[in-house]
Write a structure and sequence with these properties.
The chain contains 15 helices and 15 strands. It has 438 residues and is an alpha/beta fold.
């Protein structure tokens, strides 16, 4: 069961031109106004150089088009913060400046009109410098994310003594010392903000270790009232980073912990946005936009090139469908009818053919080479009807009974054509299979 969101004091990122994204909610905001939790937002970070203005703007447009609600950019040099003055007016999504080592970059980014600052306590920890940044942000009502990172936490005090003291705090946890130091660093750092009466704060505590991420955010969620930016850092390439990220973030999100997410891959950040959205949709934490695609994994019964078909369907529908219709692409008749029944639009394959259903009603029976185009036509036609209010998503008109059992008769179109399925199940009529007709 998904638990209720943990209440936090929300922050607001953006302005009237790019739009304002609320992160967190449920507690009074920094001005004392009551709030309700905002939907969990998805953010990402550009991969190119910020000073390369045209490319950076192009990348931000691409990420926003993919669904990113906030985009972060690196500003390691002054030429990057100078570039922000030209980048920000050209984009339509809130921009965060990711600042490390040089507090001046934060001041410059604020002057350039950035919508949020990220500071790392591991490399900007001079109190006077941090206070300068806080005051600049306060004057412009710009929130700050305090992001501790396992990889950049540096213990400068009596390391051995601290290790012993802090390690004892979470001695039962395999990452006891690191967990304790992340929390201690956050507490020390946030004291500077509280001294300045600054509460427009979000927090992150990332690691590449999923179990440490779960433990760190679980602890932090009980100690601070600020919204949490979830992420697994240095998660690796998409193929493995996806598992690592979903393992950690799902464990937290299902417990109501987390207000904005960034999945990070050593790949095109568009994937980070797509997978972040899919994660929230899959957990039912955001209303799905676009297709909910169901596809079978294939097995020895497969009789069309389903992997290619599924990828083609996914790409085509992602570009053209905006309503959250459920589309099933199934390799054979074993699970095909059952899934067709549950989907708005479905195809299940026979022997080099595809049988297409819309809301449970069979609408086409075509050779393999026509499956993609015919399915797309019916999906777009169905979308049009939904948008015109003629049909409702999730409704179905015809009951399709799954032909079961099929172990005796196989699953190919040939078997269907010969009537084995109908005779084995007595459901040929209900399934409505008629060879050669559409
Ligand atoms: S739908 Fe058919 S082809 Fe796909 S996995 Fe199930 S039994 Fe195999």
């Amino acid at each position: 069961m998904i638990q209720a969101r943990r209440p936090t004091s929300p922050i607001f990122v953006g302005d009237s031109r790019v739009g304002i994204v609320q992160i967190g909610g449920g507690l009074p905001d920094a001005s004392g106004r009551p709030s309700v939790p905002a939907p969990i937002s998805v953010q990402t970070m550009t991969a190119g150089y910020t000073y390369d203005i045209d490319k950076c703007v192009g990348e931000i447009h691409k990420l926003a088009a993919a669904g990113a609600e906030i985009v972060r950019v690196a500003v390691p040099e002054k030429k990057d913060t100078e570039a922000l003055r030209e980048i920000i007016p050209q984009v339509r999504v809130p921009i965060v400046a990711d600042v490390h080592f040089h507090f001046q970059r934060a001041l410059e980014a604020v002057e350039a009109g950035v919508h949020k600052i990220r500071l790392n306590p591991g490399n900007i920890n001079d109190r006077a410098q941090v206070k300068d940044v806080i005051q600049a942000c306060k004057a412009r009502k710009i929130p700050i994310r305090v992001g501790v990172n396992e990889g950049s936490i540096i213990e400068r005090k009596d390391k051995q003594k601290r290790q012993k003291e802090l390690g004892a705090v979470f001695s039962e946890h395999k990452h006891g010392y690191m967990l304790a130091i992340m929390i201690a660093k956050l507490e020390e750092y946030l004291d500077i903000f509280y001294e300045e009466d600054f509460r427009d704060i979000a927090i992150s505590a990332k690691s590449m270790d999923a179990s440490l991420v779960i433990a760190a955010y679980s602890e932090i969620s009980q100690r601070f009232p600020h919204p949490l930016h979830l992420g697994v850092t240095h998660a690796g390439p998409k193929e493995t980073g996806c598992i690592r990220s979903v393992a950690a973030l799902s464990a937290l999100l299902t417990r109501g912990i987390g207000d904005t997410i960034r999945i990070s891959y050593a790949s095109d950040p568009v994937y980070e946005v797509e997978d972040g959205l899919e994660l929230l949709w899959s957990l039912g934490l955001r209303e799905r936009k676009g297709v909910d695609l169901i596809a079978c994994p294939t097995c020895g019964r497969i009789q069309v090139d389903l992997f290619t078909l599924v990828q083609d369907v996914r790409k085509q529908l992602a570009a053209r469908v905006t309503v959250p219709m459920k589309v099933a692409v199934m390799g054979c008749i074993v699970n095909g009818p059952g899934e067709a029944e549950g989907a708005d639009v479905a195809v299940f394959a026979g022997d080099r053919r595809g049988i297409i259903y819309v809301q449970g009603e069979r609408v086409a029976n075509v050779p393999e080479e026509q499956i993609l185009d015919t399915l797309l036509t019916h999906c777009l036609d169905f979308q049009g009807k939904v948008l015109r209010g003629e049909v409702k998503l999730g409704d179905k008109k015809v009951a399709i009974l799954p032909p079961d059992p099929l172990g005796e008769v196989g699953s190919g179109w040939e078997k269907v054509a010969k009537g084995y399925v109908a005779s084995a199940t007595g459901q040929g009529k209900a399934v409505g299979l008629t060879v050669g007709k559409t």
